[in-house]
């Protein structure tokens, strides 16, 4: 087994994942789906990530997405599949990824040798991902790898994201954090979504989020001001450490030098995308 520097897995993921996530914060995918007849903006994210499953119901989406209120999911799934098929949704998502990355990075970056190298490294890492107990990863792993390097990188980033995401849900469940508690405790770390974005995207009411904070206070994980206590900070860090441990295989397969190079290259592309406005300025709970 390759020995990686401390937190190398987390650092690499933190710069690869945004290259996937850009598509969900740009209008391109919503426009692609609208052209196919799906004009409900609230359905875009659910359709985008769940399409790899095929025509699943709301229960599957709620279970695998974890922190969305089921009522919100059921408002759109499975009805959305009557408007746009999963197959068409996946093709539209890839077209959106192409247009978003072209706009954020530029054609020269997409055609560069650095892009090709980044894609090759990320794809090599995915060779060691595991389908076991990772449904979103497993569904995406069955999709073909696009030929264009920037889309191959986007595909690989998707696989690495979903592999870690499925793994993260294992760690959250083991830590006894339900959907709302996971959200509000992550926000309290300063690295999660801002309260504004939680209310706008996850379907939970302000009262339900407040109740989640109360449950965490009862457990001694939040203080009266809504900040993490020492125990709360330790629990959140243990969740991340366990996620790193369970998600280490792709990066161990790539090796320390490969992980360092992927982190460097993907970090540069992510920095460029963020400079170009890939994400809303008020997305995070703290600056």
From TrEMBL:
UniProt-listed InterPro entries: HTH_67 (IPR054058)
Q: What is this protein called?
A: SalK
Q: Which NCBIfam families match?
A: SCO6745_fam_HTH (NF047719)
Annotated source species: Streptomyces botrytidirepellens
């Amino acid at each position: 087994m390759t020995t990686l520097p401390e937190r190398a897995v987390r650092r690499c993921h933190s710069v690869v994942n945004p290259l996937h996530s850009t598509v969900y914060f740009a209008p391109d995918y919503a426009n692609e789906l609208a052209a196919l007849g799906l004009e409900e903006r609230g359905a875009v994210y659910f359709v985008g990530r769940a399409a790899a499953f095929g025509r699943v119901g709301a229960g599957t989406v709620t279970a695998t997405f974890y922190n969305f209120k089921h009522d919100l999911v059921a408002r759109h799934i499975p009805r959305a599949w009557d408007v746009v098929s999963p197959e068409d949704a996946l093709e539209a998502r890839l077209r959106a990824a192409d247009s978003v990355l072209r706009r954020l990075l530029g054609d020269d970056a997409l055609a560069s040798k650095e892009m090709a190298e980044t894609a090759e490294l990320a794809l090599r890492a995915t060779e060691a991902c595991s389908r076991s107990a990772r449904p979103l990863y497993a569904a995406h792993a069955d999709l073909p790898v696009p030929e264009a390097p920037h889309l191959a990188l986007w595909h690989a980033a998707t696989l690495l994201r979903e592999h870690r995401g499925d793994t993260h849900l294992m760690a959250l469940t083991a830590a006894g954090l339900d959907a709302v508690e996971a959200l509000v405790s992550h926000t309290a770390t300063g690295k999660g979504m801002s309260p504004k974005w939680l209310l706008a995207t996850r379907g939970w009411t302000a009262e339900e989020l407040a109740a989640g904070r109360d449950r965490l206070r009862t457990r001694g994980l939040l203080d009266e001001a809504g900040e993490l206590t020492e125990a709360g900070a330790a629990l959140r860090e243990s969740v991340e450490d366990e996620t790193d441990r369970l998600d280490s295989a792709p990066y161990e397969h790539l090796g320390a030098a490969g992980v360092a190079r992927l982190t460097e290259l993907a970090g540069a592309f992510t920095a460029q995308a963020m400079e170009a406005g890939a994400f809303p300025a008020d997305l995070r709970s703290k600056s």
